[in-house]
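Z., the sequence and structure:
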Amino acid sequence: MEMFCYQCEQTAKGAGCNILGVCGKPPEVAALQDVLTYAVIGLGQVAHAARAKGISDPAVNRFTVEALFSTLTNVDFDPERFPPLIKKAASLREGLKAKLGGDAPSQGPAGFQPAGDLAGLIAQHEVFGFKPAPGADANITSLKHIVIFGLRGVAAYADHAAILGQQDEAVYAFVHKALAATQDASLGLNDWVGLALATGETNIRAMELLDAGNTGTYGHPVPTAVPLGHKKGKALLVSGHDLLDLEQILKQSEGKGIYVYTHGEMLPTHGYPGLKKYAHFFGHYGTAWQNQLKEFPEFPGAIVMTTNCIQRPKADVAGKLFTTGLVGWPGVAHIAGTGQGKDFGPAIKKALELPGFAEDTDAGSVLVGFGRNAVLGVADKVIEAVKGGAIKHFFLVAGCDGAKPGRNYYTEFVEKLPQDTVILTLACGKFRFFDKQLGDIGGIPRLLDIGQCNDAYSAVQIAVALAGAFNCGVNDLPLSLVLSWYEQKAVAILLSLLHLGIKDIRLGPSLPAFITPDVLKVLVDNFNIMPITTPEADLKAILG
């Protein structure tokens, strides 16, 4: 069967995957994700109508973001897990309809009836897929998809925040409103531009909630040196983004002779006081998500994937790999449960069975923990360095990493930056240069790791504070944004930056396939967003 998916940066030929996802997603899973999205849009229609009548269902709110998160790139590849989600979307929708009575929407997705079996659900994607329909307005379709993909990113952050007890009715209200809007044929181009920017605004709130959950639970990150080597002994590797899962693993493995390591975007967790207090929380292993096919087979212990990005595991990895939460891969053991109720015993047992590292290895270290509290805590030194000319320019070089050629641009860009510049970074794009020894300026490290992708919230707060200190707008700061993107959380963050009016963003390694030339022109005309070119040319354009 054929498929159509163009939601990530690596989509085939820069246009769309139609045989097999570059991420490894088979057509059957792509179909089920499309049907689930359609079912959730129907739920959104009814939830939006119910909210107008003063009805808001917490179960509907939580399910909506969980379901959308499940369709994010590199999260869930298990076809057996989607039918229950699709049917639950329809069941929750009908429950809301019963409360609304005759006022409930019933057309389109709001009236969708899931097929009774897996084959039937897969077949339904032919009606509900993302492939642009012939005769449809290409620009409206583009903006609709930008909003839907952005909502998937918002959902990821909202779900993580809710796990840590942080929720906001306004976030759920907007998600349902935007989902319902996809069925409103009266909306024009300007309406959709407004909804895209409002998606960015909502994402800021979702990231703020997650920031409150992370820092409220584990304290504000502090500058911390993280070993890149390993300790002799049993080993357990944690990848993804979920801090609560990591905490549970640390608690449950304590005293068992296991050293816990981070992988990918879990690296910044070493800076949280509530996590770094565990003596067996040792160091970081590996780099970004796309290198796991090489790195995971070489890791001599158990591996837990808490969120994206999972890839098809090799045979010698599948037996020591565990998924949890919304992550899934057929045939890989899944640790069920929610919150603090998860039992990571199977992963711990596997770590004890495997050989672990045979000896201590010193591979140097990297610094993490430069969230807004840490950076703004030395703001006086930063301001003095800028005013005195020691710091001439700031660069935010951040975003997603990936396997597509061209991402070495970010390594070369950072390497070529003058010594009087400071680099802020976050998300997994940092792995292109995270271990570079770039020195410091008056004791201020030139490379400041702000954290995970959601810590874009911290980056915004740092920029706003600096703008206030210099009595100027953020766009007037000696600050340039050079971003890389891969999946839908990056889409949401980009929309957040545009909502804030940030201009002159350089984006790469390629522009999204779902953005039409006309929509791109709107972004260029209003925000001067531009593709990366070469490190030399871009540096010359920025610094003169």
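The chain has 20 helices and 16 strands. The mean pLDDT is 97.

Let me know what you think.
H.
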